[in-house]
Backbone:
């Protein structure tokens, strides 16, 4: 695998190579291999990496609390993160405090029960565990209630993720640019050029609004 670019560069001398994100990491491991064969590795620089933001996505993306890169996460993780960031009460803190207080009370009561009959200590512990289980069920119901209230926003999260990271990959790895040309016309390239600064290097992913 490592010898392919080496052979390629010897057959077709290369001054510089525009590499994608994966290739940059790949070539980062290659320098010593070139040295072993007394060859000069070409200059490796990042190619343009960009994502087109459709108008329908651009209108709603600022209403959600996520950065572009966060949409690479699983949809379940995004849902949970949104609920955590938008909830009116801290659900985790509420139930954690509730359990802690029950635990303190239960410890004292278990001692009283044990004074009556040591064999009931296990039953007392089981009763506490059952109560904790019911609290966990209630917490799940609270999360689901919040989720239902925010379903519109959660649907938007799915829409944005599907546009930015279709199939879990960067847009450019899953959707050909011709799709956007057909949908929005050749003007997409004007938008792309307008998003670039003179002399800009492509070391950061570009977001291009259509």
Residues:
């Amino acid at each position: 695998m490592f010898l392919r670019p080496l052979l390629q560069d010897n057959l077709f001398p290369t001054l510089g190579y525009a590499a994608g994100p994966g290739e940059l990491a790949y070539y980062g491991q290659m320098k010593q291999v070139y040295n072993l064969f007394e060859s000069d590795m070409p200059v490796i620089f990042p190619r343009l990496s960009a994502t087109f933001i459709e108008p329908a996505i651009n209108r709603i993306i600022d209403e959600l609390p996520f950065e572009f890169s966060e949409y690479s996460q699983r949809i379940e993780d995004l849902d949970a993160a949104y609920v955590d960031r938008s909830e009116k009460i801290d659900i985790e803190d509420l139930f954690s405090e509730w359990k802690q207080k029950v635990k303190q009370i239960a410890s004292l009561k278990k001692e009283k029960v044990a004074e009556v009959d040591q064999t009931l200590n296990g039953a007392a512990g089981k009763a506490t565990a059952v109560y904790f289980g019911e609290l966990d069920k209630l917490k799940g119901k609270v999360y689901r209630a919040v989720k239902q209230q925010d379903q519109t926003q959660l649907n938007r999260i799915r829409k944005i993720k599907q546009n930015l990271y279709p199939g879990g990959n960067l847009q450019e790895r899953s959707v050909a640019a011709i799709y956007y040309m057909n949908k929005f016309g050749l003007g997409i390239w004007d938008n792309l050029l307008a998003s670039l600064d003179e002399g800009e290097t492509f070391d950061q992913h570009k977001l291009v609004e259509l």
